[in-house]
């Protein structure tokens, strides 16, 4: 298929629909509204949106200091379009932006059970003696 790839943020309705259909909204810790999740995406350093015709079918975003660190967030693919290489395309586009900006430290939080997908793309799990940590309010 021929997809349209853009670094523009999608319309709210399309973003909310993809968040819902991909199941990503259910995995969020906390009680965020669709509007809040869209605002978070709007505050991103960089995002990739992939469309089939006019339908948003894949999305991913990064937050970054723009110098040496970035964090990949909210990679989602519509269930009808999974296993077609779109998740891989989202990651490759995000990594390409980091390379263009000479950002060398790229991190992500994987959804449960998706680590193997990111490993195939070159990501490594953190060392056990250097775990990621979380502070919850």
Automatic annotation (TrEMBL):
Record domain N-acetyltransferase: where: 7-137
SUPFAM superfamilies in alphabetical order: Acyl-CoA N-acyltransferases (Nat)
Record flagged with keyword Acyltransferase: yes
Pfam families linked to this entry: Acetyltransf_7 (PF13508)
Signal peptide residues on this chain, from the entry's feature table: none
Gene3D superfamilies listed in its UniProt record: 3.40.630.30
UniProt xrefs under PROSITE patterns: GNAT
InterPro entries from the UniProt entry: Acyl_CoA_acyltransferase, GNAT_dom, NSI-like
Gene Ontology terms for molecular function: N-acetyltransferase activity
Keywords: Acyltransferase, Transferase
Cellular component terms (Gene Ontology): cytoplasm
PANTHER family registered for this protein in UniProt: ACYL-COA N-ACYLTRANSFERASE (PTHR43626), GCN5-RELATED N-ACETYLTRANSFERASE 2, CHLOROPLASTIC (PTHR43626:SF4)
Name this protein carries in UniProt: GNAT family N-acetyltransferase
